[in-house]
Amino acid sequence: MDTKLIQILVCPVCKGPLVYKKMERELLCKPCRLAYPIKDDIPVMLEDEARRLPDTEEV
Ligand SMILES: [Zn+2]
Cα(16) to centroid of ligand 1, in Å? Predict the structure, then answer.
């Protein structure tokens, strides 16, 4: 996964910066509590495809 690409990606919901979670292969938006999946090294920047983090999960 290209880290330069991650730097230009923003959350489609709040337009905020994302955190790359290497282990989970997800891009995390902390304010929205949404984790966008990375499929075949391509980030899926769709709210419908994102995983909604449970309140118990640390972000
Ligand atoms: Zn967001």
Answer: 6
Domains, the chain, with CATH or none: 3-52 (2.20.25.10)
For residues 43 and 30, the answer to whether their CB atoms sit within 8 Å is: no
**pLDDT higher than threshold 70 for residue 1:** no
Strands 51-52 and 19-21: unpaired
Q: How far is the CA of 17 from the centre of ligand 1 (A)?
A: 8
Give the pLDDT mean for 23-29.
Answer: 94
pLDDT, residue 27, reads 95
